[in-house]
Structure formats: structure tokens, C-alpha cells
């Protein structure tokens, strides 16, 4: 009865709140130990299979699209007669001070892992990652909607991180050690080759008004590095076109230039037969970008142009002439160009996980996960609760919700449902799932996550299974054997 | 087992909901996208920041033929426009032709005598013979006392039948060298040939002056014969001629005579200048207007200019005399005090200032130069002139009384969009904020009209002060002398309703109509304002513009 009650309450909570839930993550796989993701998130969480082999490009496709909280329906609405229209005012109201569209992806290229004795688990993996984020100003839409004018406050056309992009290939070797019947620890070392990067150090474009006039100020410093070439931006006033110069000869020499290193480490602690506490740090590392580094910079750093009003207006001169001069002046003051950049270093987006698993019934699990996502200019917190139906090695259905508190708890998005499915059919292990933001209705979603994969796995290690031979055979592995 | 089935069923349902109920295609049917209108607002505190100086209004520095200077009087500084013209009168000079004079010496009856040695006739113990040459009478009763020559020939011919070598000595006290006042002396040797001897001397007179005695020139002469034997009866003739007389100056009574002169001079100043618009309609009054007549002559003849007529022709070609005081019609011309000097004189004549309001197109004068009216001794030079320069002074001290002034500027915010529909699509409301600081001692009332491509006013663009008060700023504060003490400041909010906006949208040009009045003092009197070049008005204009923008990127 207790199990039924908990299950029903959990389902109802998701269904009732599906119109306001936001943000979606694949964190639900943290506790799905039959999938590669769980092990990736915490190298101390030994996969349930004694041996697994990830098939090239099939074993892990994880795509994540996410907005900062706005949906398609915030911008384009439908009337009762089913006609559509742009609602800039509504869109402006839905935006926060920091708005972005981001897309992340992870593709498993190759991987395998196996038990090395009874207390060790060793893994190897190659995967490709990319994450991109485009930020934009709320003020622009405030201007379009008429809510924001130049008079009331400064308009931020662009804030300090207009664009970031990170793409790299990570080659990892993982090792997990069963310390004792309660404690597992794991470490994964990653050797990284950077493919491309765009890092915005500063991208300020602000328009403000005071007694002097209307002032535009800009400062751009956007660093970039690419394995295959470099961008050439001659300037807004130049007749030369924007080019991306690809130097095929330099690709070979550049392929190993963007090197990086990272580690994942974690631990699990079995509180009792029903509960496991876990902790991990993922992607603690860096990439040093040296290949074809190019900076997009302001020609006049912190250049300003103040429009103090049209002057010398007479029958011989016209507004259009003055507007043309104004345009030239603004361009000269705020123009951008490219230059040869210096090498620079970016940190990997580090995550910290704290997990709690409760096997409250034979086949039912209630899990909780805290995740901290730490970047150069953000600190996001996520708290998730998941229910999982685990039918031994054969089936896992998980449902849950994530409460997100982004930017150091300033931006709270309380409900983010997710669901995942895992089936083990002989040697093939299939897993897929995803998450939605805000609503099941795509038009109202603020993000979506999808993952899919097939790998080969053999054996089953139940993490809650007590190793009864532990006390008797000292050298025997503590990895639980399958039931 | 039933429980397991229940859980499995729940799971499958949730998966189905999760992945199948997500899309409503109507949300993405962009064919049904409708156009929406948004109204971005642009509020610019400084749309226009303009300083308009007096020079911008009148283009003072480029008015052709007009000199602008800063003058001062006990009341303060003021600008003054000066328009100058001049004319020259060339009096005629006397023409002097001296007729040749033949003189026959008394006969020398020496027949039958004999003499060896120098023989003088008359004898050295006697005075030299004298021959008078008459100086001609001149026109206008002119009589010459002396004359400084710069050209001419004195030709003296002697002929005789003397059969010895001989010569004649001639002197003339009336003819002297200019450099040392030496008396004219000449010796004429007679050629000898069989009882006939002739001698001729020609003297260039440019180095000489002639001082007449009763209009006559007296030549004295003595004949010398180098005798050597028998003498005979001799006849001697003398011919004196002064030809081609040219002079630098002639002294004496130069007579009295008049030279008439007249001219019509176009006044461009009032034809094309924007300033002329101020004078029209008697709404702008100047304090005064005067002319300085300046005369200059190299002649030693005192003279007087009698102005018969001095005035202007208005646009209808009607003449208006400008001289108020009849006594001002006579201008004395001071003669040169001596040769190579210039005689000058100046006379200031007050003019009828109201003539400027007639926008004079042409200045006309008719005058007579009376030379030597008192017939006194004086001198005349060879190239005499009397130059008369008239400087018309317009002190820029004036009063404005409801003067209308229009200025137009292009409204090409909409350049390239020639249809009314296009204009209307983009502006919903417009409000202009004016912040004006006025250093002009002029109050300004304003109206703003839209003007179409044909130049016709098509309606008001803005209603100043909601149409209740067209005065947008008062004149700068002035003292009793018309000097600016301090500027005046005013902020005006000007809003345009939909009708005004519609006019603005249609307007090719914007016509700003200004009504101007000069400032009054604290006690209400309206002094003549002293306009200064640096007088300016500072205009800061802001705008609050609400636009109309229709958006439908999916419209085919």
C-alpha cells in the first residue's frame, strides 16, 4: 500500500504540474546503471554489466536543446480562430535579464569496460562533445514591443557573453575500485583534443541616454580557435567580404594543438542494504586552445559614440545626409575586426553530483540527485527526484522531475519531468529517454532532451546485492553478482 | 503479477503521453500567420542640437558690397553695415596756345662805317632790347599768374643780313628754371652766308616755369657782331614762338564754372539678401541712417557740390528723396593745399531711415560741382579730379514689431518613400521637446507647417503649447540702450496629434514660421536693439516617436 501511495503521488505531481515545468536534463540516467551515462556521471558507479562494449556512434547519442525559459508559444501565439501572430510584448515579458538558447550534444564514438578482478573495473571511451550557447538581450524585444525606450534606462543590445561554442573529442580511461563492502571510488582521466571554440570574453553593446545625448558604447573581445582555419572579418566599412580561411595543410599540424586534460572522480557509499549515497565530480579540466586562434575585437575598445542631435540643419543639408554621417560615425566608433589571437585556456563545464538511491521495494527505487553545474559565469543547481521501476537486468523505467535553480538560485524553475527506458535483450542493451520543458506541448516547451543508445553488455551486477562472501574471502571482488 | 502488469501499463501510458501528445500542428501552421503591428518607441533627448547665430540668419559676412563693422557709442557696441559707392568728376583744364610773336629790331644803319672788334647792339652801356609776347586769354575768365610746365617748346628765330659772324643773347625773367629759379638765357648764333645770316634755337620747356607779368612774357635781347672792317646797313628780325605748352599746374584766377554729374547705382543688398525681408513691411525699424560724403581732389580749386537730387527708387520705380535737411545738399570740397597734395573733406548727412523699408532697388543722384565759386586765386593741375565717395551707414540698431520670418528645411526622413501609405506605416505618434536658450533680444513665436512638393502648406505639423500660445521663447533681457543683459530660457513640449502626424508624413518640407519681436526693458519701453554677430539661439530638440511597424515574415 505504501508503495502504491508513493507511486501515485509521484505520478500525480508530474501530471498536475506539467504546464509549468521547465528545464530538462538527462540526469535521470545517473541512476540507470545499465546505461553508459550513469558510469560517465560517476566513475565510482560500476556498470551493472561485467563487460560492455559501446558501438561506434550507436551507443550514445545525447542531444539537448534548451532555452533560458521562453518557449515558441511565448513569441508566436494562436488565436481562437487558429490564426497565428507574433506577440513581442508577451515574449518580452517571458524573458529574463539573461536569455539564451543553447544546444549540447554528446556522441559516443567507442567505449568498453570490464571487471578486472573482483574489486576493479576498467573502462575506455572516446566521445565527441559540443555545446553552444547564444545569449541575447531582453531589451531588444522590449524595444520592439514598445515597453523599452532609450529614455528610461540603458538598452543592452548585447551583454557580456553573446556566443560560446565548444567542441572537442575526449579520450578517457576509467578505473573503479571497490574499497570495501560499502565504499566504491572511481577516477577517469580524459585526454582532450579541441576541435573548435568560441569564447566571449566581452561583448558589450549598450545604448544609453543622458543629458549629453544618446550614447552607444561597445567592446568586443571574442576569442576563437579552430582546427581547420580562421575567420577574417575586415570590418563593417570594408569592401572586403567576411571569409573563413581554410588551410588544408595546416589541419594536420593543428589537429593536436588544442590539447586539454580532465578528470572525473567519484565515490559511492552503501548506507545499508536499501540505500546508496554517491558523490562525483565530472569534467574537472581544461582545454588550451592554440590552433588558428583568432580574436574578434573592437577596433576601438570601449569605443563610444554620442549622438548629440542633428546640427546645422538648413535648406542646404538634409536629415538623410546627416543620418549618413551619423551612420559612418557610429561604424567608425563601434566597428569590429579580427586579429591573430593568442593562445587561451577554457575550463570544462564541471558538474558535481550528489546522489541518493533508495530501493524502497524489491523492484522500486526512489532516487534523489543534486547537481551543481559550474562554469565561468554561471553556477546552476539542480535537484531531482526520480522513481525507477527496475526489473532486474531486463527492464528499467524511470520517471522524475528536476528542480532547477540557475545562476546561484536566482532563477528558479521548479519542475522538469523526465523519463527513461532501458531494456536488456540478451547481449543488446537498449536505452532511450528524454525530458521536456514546461509542457508536453512542443509549442510551449522551453527545451528538450533526447538520448538513445545500444550497446552490448554481459552480466548483471546489482549494486544493492550484499556480497555475502566478502568477510570470508578477502580477495574476492565486492562487485555484486547477478541474482 | 497483477501489480506488475499495473506498473508496466502505467509506464507505457506515460511514455505515450510523453512522446506522442506533444505536437499540435496548428501551432506551426505558418500559412495562417497574420500580420501584427508593433510600436517601438524611440525617445531621443537630443534629436537636434543647433546654435543659430545672427550670421546664420542673415549670412552677414557674405553680403556682397557691404562691409560689416563693430561700432561703439556711449550706449555700447553695435554692428554697422556700410555700403559705399563713389564717383569722380574730372574738371576740364585750360588749353594754352601762345601765338608766335615777330619782333623787328630797329635798323642798324652802319653803311659807310668801319669797325674792327665786338660790336653790340644795343651798346653794352644800354639796356637790352625788350620784346613782349602776349599770353593768351583763357576760357571762363581764367587768368594765369604762373604756370609750371611739363612740356612745350620755346623757339626763337633770328634772321639778318649781317655779313660778319654774329649772335644774339636773349634772356627772359618770366621764364625760369624750376629747379633753381635761374632766368632763361639763350645765345643764338647766326650762320653767315653772303649777307644773310640765320639762327634758330629751340628750348624744351619742361624744366621751366613761367611767371607772367600782366599776362605778358618779356624777352630781352642784345645782338653781337664780330666786325672786321666796313659795316653796312643791317636789318635784324626776331621771331619768338611757344608751342605745345603742357603744364603740371597753373596758378591764377581759374575762373568759376560748374560740372554736372549724376548716376544710378543698383543696390544688390536689398535684392537678394535675406536681410531685406526684415526691412519689408515696416516691421523692422532702424534707429538712424546716414551717409558720409567724402571728397578728394588734387586740384587747388575750391569747389562745392550741390546735390540736386539724392534718393532711391523703390520696387515700383518711384523715386524717394533721402536728404532730410536742405542744408545737407551742399558739400564743400576742400582743395589741395599745394601741388602734389590731396584735399579732402567729409560731410555726414542724415538720411530718411524709413527709406529702407521701401527695399530700395536703386540709388540715384544728380549733382553739380561748382568750381571756384568765389573766383579766388588757386591752381589747377594737369589731371584734375574731384572724387566723391558716399558711405551709407546703417547702424544695426532696430526694433522688430511682429516680424514674420519663414525658414524651410527638408523633411526627408521619408526619402525614397514617395507614397503617403509608406509614410503612414511607420509613425504613430510624435512629440517634440524644445529646450531653447535665447541670446537674441527677440521673442520668437513659431508655427510649423508641412509643405508638399509644390510648396503648398498642407497643414500644421505641430501645435505649440497646445495651440494656445505660439510664443515659444521670450527675447533676451535688454537694458535701456538695447544691450543684451541675459538670455531667456524656456522649455516647451510640443505634441502632435494624429492629424498633425498625418501632415508630417505627407510633407516634403517643413516650414517654420517665426514671429519675431524685439525685447522691451523692464519698464516696458522698447529700445532700439543693438544686434551683435555673436547673438545666438540655442535649440535642443528631443523627440518621442512611436512607430508603427507591421510584421509578417511568412506573408507571401
* Name of the CATH class of chain A: Mainly Beta
> Major beta sheet of chain A, specifics?
22 strands, antiparallel
Poorly predicted sequence stretches spanning 5 or more consecutive residues of chain A: 1-25, 467-483
Judging by the overall fold, what is the CATH architecture of chain A?
Beta Barrel
Helix-strand makeup class of chain A: mainly beta
Helix content of chain B: under 10%
Largest interface, with counts of residues having CB < 8 Å to the other chain, equals: A-B, 54 and 51 residues
Q: Uncertain runs of chain B with pLDDT below 50, 5 residues or more? A: none
Radius of gyration of chain B: 48 Å
Assembly state: heterodimer
| Tally of discrete structural domains of chain A | 1
The whole-number mean of residue pLDDT values of chain B reads: 82
Query: What gross morphology of chain A would you assign?
Result: globular
Q: How much of the sequence of chain A is in beta strands?
A: over 45%
Largest sheet of chain B: 5 strands, antiparallel
Radius of gyration of chain A: 26 Å
The total of helices of chain A stands at: 8
Query: What is the number of helical segments of chain B per DSSP (H or I, 4+ residues)?
Result: 6
> What's the CATH topology label of chain A?
Porin
- Kindly report how far apart the N and C termini of chain A lie: 26 Å
Structural class based on helices, strands and sheet pairing of chain B: mainly beta
Amino acid at each position: 500500500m505504501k508503495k502504491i501511495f508513493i507511486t501515485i503521488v509521484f505520478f500525480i505531481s508530474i501530471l498536475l504540474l506539467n504546464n509549468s515545468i521547465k528545464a530538462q536534463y538527462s540526469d535521470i540516467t545517473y541512476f540507470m546503471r545499465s546505461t553508459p551515462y550513469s558510469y560517465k556521471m560517476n566513475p565510482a558507479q560500476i556498470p551493472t554489466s561485467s563487460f560492455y562494449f559501446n558501438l561506434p556512434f550507436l551507443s550514445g547519442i545525447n542531444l539537448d536543446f534548451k532555452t533560458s525559459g521562453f518557449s515558441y508559444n511565448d513569441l508566436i501565439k494562436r488565436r481562437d480562430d487558429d490564426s497565428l501572430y507574433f506577440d513581442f510584448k508577451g515574449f518580452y515579458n517571458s524573458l529574463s535579464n539573461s536569455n539564451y538558447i543553447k544546444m549540447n550534444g554528446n556522441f559516443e564514438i567507442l567505449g568498453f569496460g570490464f571487471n578486472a578482478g573482483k574489486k576493479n573495473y576498467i573502462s575506455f571511451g572516446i566521445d565527441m562533445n559540443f555545446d553552444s550557447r547564444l545569449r541575447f538581450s531582453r531589451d531588444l524585444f522590449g524595444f520592439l514591443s514598445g515597453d523599452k525606450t532609450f529614455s528610461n534606462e540603458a538598452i543592452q543590445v548585447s551583454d557580456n557573453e553573446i556566443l560560446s561554442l565548444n567542441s572537442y573529442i575526449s579520450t578517457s580511461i576509467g578505473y573503479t575500485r571497490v574499497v570495501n563492502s560499502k565504499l566504491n571510488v572511481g577516477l577517469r582521466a580524459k585526454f582532450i583534443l579541441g576541435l573548435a571554440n568560441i569564447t566571449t570574453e566581452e561583448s558589450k553593446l549598450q545604448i544609453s541616454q543622458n543629458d549629453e545625448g544618446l550614447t552607444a558604447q561597445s567592446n568586443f573581445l571574442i576569442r576563437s580557435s579552430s582546427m581547420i582555419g580562421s575567420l577574417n572579418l575586415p570590418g563593417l566599412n570594408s569592401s572586403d567580404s567576411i571569409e573563413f580561411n581554410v588551410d588544408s595543410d595546416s589541419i594536420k599540424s593543428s589537429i593536436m594543438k588544442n590539447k586539454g586534460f580532465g578528470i572525473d572522480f567519484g565515490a559511492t557509499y552503501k548506507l545499508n542494504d536499501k540505500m546508496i549515497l554517491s558523490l562525483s565530480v565530472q569534467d574537472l579540466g581544461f582545454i588550451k586552445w592554440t590552433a588558428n586562434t583568432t580574436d574578434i575585437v573592437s577596433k576601438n575598445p570601449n569605443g563610444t559614440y554620442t549622438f548629440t542631435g542633428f546640427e546645422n540643419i538648413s535648406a542646404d543639408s538634409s536629415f538623410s545626409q546627416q543620418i549618413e554621417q551619423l551612420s559612418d560615425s557610429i561604424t567608425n566608433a563601434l566597428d569590429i575586426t579580427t586579429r591573430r589571437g593568442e593562445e587561451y585556456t577554457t575550463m570544462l563545464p564541471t558538474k558535481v553530483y550528489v546522489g541518493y538511491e533508495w530501493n524502497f521495494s524489491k523492484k522500486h527505487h526512489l532516487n534523489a540527485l543534486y547537481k551543481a553545474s559550474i562554469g565561468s559565469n554561471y553556477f546552476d543547481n539542480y535537484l531531482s527526484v526520480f522513481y525507477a521501476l527496475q526489473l532486474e537486468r531486463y527492464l528499467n523505467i524511470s520517471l522524475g522531475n528536476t528542480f532547477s535553480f540557475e545562476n546561484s538560485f536566482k532563477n528558479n524553475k521548479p519542475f522538469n519531468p523526465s523519463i527513461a527506458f532501458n531494456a536488456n535483450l540478451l547481449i543488446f542493451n537498449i536505452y532511450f529517454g528524454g525530458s521536456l520543458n514546461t509542457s508536453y506541448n512542443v509549442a510551449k516547451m522551453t527545451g528538450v532532451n533526447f538520448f538513445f543508445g545500444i550497446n552490448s553488455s554481459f552480466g548483471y551486477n546489482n549494486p544493492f546485492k550484499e556480497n555475502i562472501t566478502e568477510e570470508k574471502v578477502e580477495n574476492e571482488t565486492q562487485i555484486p553478482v547477478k541474482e | 503479477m497483477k501489480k506488475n502488469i499495473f506498473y508496466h501499463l502505467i509506464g507505457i501510458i506515460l511514455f505515450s503521453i510523453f512522446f506522442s501528445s506533444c505536437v499540435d500542428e496548428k501551432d506551426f501552421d505558418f500559412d495562417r500567420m497574420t500580420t501584427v503591428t508593433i510600436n517601438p518607441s524611440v525617445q531621443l533627448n537630443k534629436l537636434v542640437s543647433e546654435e543659430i547665430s545672427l550670421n546664420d540668419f542673415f549670412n552677414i559676412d557674405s553680403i556682397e558690397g557691404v562691409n560689416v563693422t563693430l561700432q561703439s557709442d556711449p550706449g555700447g557696441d553695435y554692428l554697422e553695415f556700410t555700403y559705399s559707392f563713389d564717383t569722380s568728376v574730372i574738371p576740364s583744364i585750360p588749353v594754352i596756345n601762345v601765338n608766335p610773336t615777330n619782333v623787328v629790331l630797329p635798323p642798324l644803319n652802319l653803311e659807310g662805317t668801319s669797325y674792327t672788334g665786338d660790336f653790340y647792339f644795343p651798346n653794352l652801356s644800354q639796356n637790352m632790347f625788350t620784346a613782349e609776347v602776349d599770353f593768351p586769354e583763357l576760357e571762363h575768365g581764367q587768368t594765369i599768374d604762373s604756370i609750371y610746365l611739363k612740356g612745350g617748346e620755346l623757339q626763337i628765330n633770328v634772321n639778318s643780313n649781317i655779313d660778319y659772324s654774329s649772335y644774339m643773347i636773349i634772356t627772359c625773367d618770366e621764364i625760369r628754371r624750376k629747379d633753381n629759379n635761374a632766368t632763361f638765357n639763350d645765345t643764338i648764333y647766326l650762320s653767315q652766308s653772303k649777307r644773310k645770316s640765320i639762327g634758330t634755337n629751340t628750348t624744351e620747356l619742361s624744366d621751366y616755369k613761367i611767371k607772367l607779368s600782366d599776362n605778358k612774357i618779356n624777352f630781352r635781347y642784345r645782338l653781337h657782331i664780330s666786325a672786321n672792317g666796313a659795316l653796312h646797313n643791317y636789318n635784324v628780325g626776331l621771331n619768338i614762338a611757344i608751342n605745345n605748352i603742357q603744364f603740371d599746374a597753373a596758378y591764377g584766377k581759374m575762373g568759376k564754372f560748374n560740372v554736372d554729374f549724376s548716376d544710378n547705382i543698383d543696390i544688390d543688398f536689398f535684392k537678394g539678401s535675406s536681410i531685406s525681408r526684415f526691412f519689408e513691411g515696416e516691421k523692422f525699424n532702424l534707429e538712424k541712417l546716414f551717409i558720409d560724403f567724402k571728397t578728394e581732389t588734387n586740384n587747388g580749386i575750391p569747389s562745392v557740390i550741390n546735390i540736386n537730387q539724392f534718393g532711391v527708387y523703390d520696387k515700383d520705380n518711384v523715386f524717394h528723396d533721402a536728404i532730410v535737411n536742405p542744408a545737407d545738399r551742399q558739400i564743400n570740397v576742400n582743395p589741395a593745399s599745394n601741388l602734389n597734395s590731396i584735399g579732402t573733406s567729409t560731410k555726414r548727412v542724415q538720411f530718411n531711415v524709413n527709406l529702407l523699408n521701401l527695399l530700395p532697388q536703386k540709388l540715384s543722384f544728380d549733382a553739380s560741382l561748382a568750381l571756384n565759386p568765389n573766383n579766388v586765386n588757386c591752381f589747377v593741375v594737369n589731371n584734375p579730379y574731384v572724387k566723391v565717395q558716399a558711405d551709407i551707414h546703417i547702424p544695426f540698431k532696430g526694433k522688430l514689431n511682429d516680424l514674420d520670418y519663414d525658414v524651410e528645411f527638408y523633411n526627408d526622413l521619408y526619402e525614397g518613400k514617395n507614397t503617403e501609405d509608406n509614410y503612414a506605416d511607420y509613425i504613430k505618434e510624435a512629440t517634440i521637446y524644445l529646450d531653447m536658450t535665447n541670446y537674441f533680444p527677440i521673442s520668437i513665436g513659431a508655427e510649423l507647417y508641412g509643405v508638399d512638393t509644390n510648396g503648398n502648406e498642407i497643414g500644421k505639423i505641430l501645435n505649440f503649447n497646445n495651440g494656445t500660445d505660439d510664443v515659444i521663447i521670450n527675447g533676451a533681457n535688454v537694458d535701456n540702450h538695447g544691450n543684451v543683459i541675459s538670455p531667456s530660457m524656456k522649455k516647451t513640449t510640443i505634441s502632435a496629434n494624429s492629424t498633425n502626424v498625418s501632415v508630417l508624413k505627407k510633407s516634403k518640407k517643413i516650414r517654420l514660421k517665426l514671429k519675431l519681436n524685439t525685447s522691451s526693458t523692464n519698464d516696458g519701453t522698447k529700445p532700439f536693439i543693438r544686434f551683435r554677430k555673436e547673438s545666438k539661439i540655442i535649440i535642443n530638440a528631443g523627440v518621442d516617436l512611436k512607430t508603427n511597424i507591421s510584421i509578417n515574415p511568412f506573408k507571401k
